[in-house]
Amino acid sequence: MVAVGSKCRVCKEPAIIDLPRHNAHFCAEHFLELCRRQVVKAIEKFEMLTKDDRILVAVSGGKDSLAVWDLLIDLGYQADGLYIGLGIGEYSDTSAEFARAFAAQRDLHLIEVSLRDQYGYDVPTASKATKRVPCSACGISKRHLFDKAALDGGYTVLVTGHNLDDEAAVLFGNTLRWDVEYLARQLPVLPSRHGFPKKVKPLVRLTEREMAAWCIVRGIDYLVDECPMAVGNKHLAYKEALNAIEQQSPGSKAAFYLNFLENMAPLLVGRSAAATDSLQSCSSCGAPTTGDLCAFCRVVAKASAHEPVPVELVLGKGRGRR
Q1: Domain residue limits, the chain
Q2: Which tens digits make up the pLDDT trace of 142-187?
Q3: Axis-axis angle for helices 63-74, 28-45 (nearest 10)
Q4: Superfamily for 46-315?
Q5: Were both Cys, which of 59, 84, 261, 287 would link to 65 (CB 3.0–4.6 Å)?
Q6: 252-288: per-residue pLDDT in tens?
């Protein structure tokens, strides 16, 4: 993680991590301080949270979601967790264990929702039944259930663990296609409106590597494996491309994403259909939608009537956990 003999830029004690984009090394104490400052800066700049908010954190058992929950508690916010059981075989079983252990060790409240138990399907089955790629069926399910849990529970803000690498990769993909609809919605804060809770991303100034280091220093156990159904996802390819650029020019990812927010995002205000009043209520669940039936209810209708599909069948022969 850091060359032997490296010293912390702040206190000159032995460093535990080098951060090329900051052109600096840090000891454990001052690395944690840096992370806290970056989160506070994001929260304040984009008016994400207040200490009076009822906060719900979407947690997966991975480093980013557990780190953002830990950071918010560490900064004095009150926050509960939400775990969605996606039914992705052993991967989901293990991720649930990490989320539960984190909450139990810190006496935090974790809400759990199971696709299979409560809606009659899981992601592998939804993928086959709807003929969608797994990540699409998963995304539709999670977005709906995140919104529902936040609204039903009376939470004022929904927090996700999207970090700088995530946001830069999504921005890269949307820019390659010049997808104005998605570019207009790629913001660190989406305000609440009828049928949608306020959604915020406090980690947009911190990278995956920094979140992994936060977890290590803080003693947080997390699921290391990538979701087996994400193999081949374009998002991962975009991350690899940006990592190559970052290695040659440290700070490029931060400049790419943060300068987009500063210079381009203001020009796209009002360009998203979701920002208009063109939505109506789903005839089944009442959620906002552009058609008669929302995407989630369409997935439920098809997937819940389908025979359960094993993860291995969706992955295909020769494809397994990463």
Answers
A1: 46-315
A2: 999 999 999 999 999 999 999 999 999 999 999 999 999 999 999 9
A3: 80
A4: HUPs (3.40.50.620)
A5: 59
A6: 999 999 999 999 999 998 887 655 557 889 999 999 9
